[in-house]
């Protein structure tokens, strides 16, 4: 019997980043020379799953990849990271998620997303994953699959007493109110909190306000991440949020820091169910702080062996 601790649900997972570095972006119709090109593995669900796995969680991915070389290499990437993929459904008619990124010297990204197999995970396929979901301790969901499928998965988890972590990303303004009620932990960043509450979220005070508003909508707890300022944590039925600062580090590349945080959050919630959420968030912040100190998303995620014993 495969004992699962954390599951990440997201067919968007299978996002291959094709990155070419050039001094500037090409203009329409123009061809310019780049000085570097690499293929990376990205996608929120996959990033979160890989980070949880690297900390030692048994993870499984419910996802869909294209029946092509990108899909194959993505499955291999999961295997290399110890993520269980089970039998995979390959979508014949579509291509994998391929994201072409042009990275500018200033560190800005221009991202083009070519939709592939991701939105095609259907009810029947999700039902096939029921056993995996119900035997997990934690289910992590994002909005990379259709909201209806995410809600269905969260319901499956809640009915089976599986702790749910919901990350409303990429954010949509008119989020179905059921998402709040189905989230044991609702974790988002500043811009997502802003979009969902309609109020600006640029500092700790504003994040505290936003966390109260989101909690009021029915979540068990709310975490709003604030980059170098750490995060704000508010748990029901409390009304006073806690600001959890992070150790300041000099960031090299913050890409995927939020996903590292959520993957680590899933790991700690699964492995230390009695730990206070504030402490869970503090440790997840320490893990994410390591991820901002080198380039890339998954390529920057630490393994358990890279981290101090005080985090375990
Ligand atoms: N400069 C930094 N120094 C220390 N920790 C950081 C820094 N940037 C991010 N972190 C850690 O990572 C967590 C998540 O970062 P952030 O709030 O920027 O997420 P995000 O906006 O979703 O990230 P991204 O979109 O860049 O992947 C923070 O709560 C913090 O713990
Ligand atoms: C994947 O594509 C190959 C052709 O490239 C085809 O032979 C194979 O049947 C496809 N697999 C599935 C599961 O559709
Ligand atoms: C929050 O996350 C989204 C991805 O969902 C990202 O586009 C956005 O830049 C992030 N916001 C901040 C303030 O980092």
List keywords for this structure.
312 residues, alpha/beta, UDP-N-acetylmuramoyl-L-alanine:D-glutamate ligase, four-stranded mixed beta sheet, 15 strands, disordered N terminus, binds adenosine-5'-triphosphate, ATP binding, ATP-binding
Can you describe this structure?
With 312 residues, this protein is of the alpha/beta class. The chain has a domain at 7-13 and 44-93 and 118-166 and 246-311: UDP-N-acetylmuramoyl-L-alanine:D-glutamate ligase (3-Layer(aba) Sandwich). The protein contains 10 helices and 15 strands. It has a 9-stranded mixed β-sheet with strand order 6-4-1-10-11-12-13-14-15, with helices on both faces. β14 (231-235) and β15 form a beta hairpin. α1 crosses α9, α7 crosses α8 (204-216) and α9 (257-271) packs antiparallel against α10. The longest helix is centred in the C-terminal third of the chain and has 15 residues, at 257-271. The chain is globular. Adenosine-5'-triphosphate (ATP) binds next to α9 and α10.
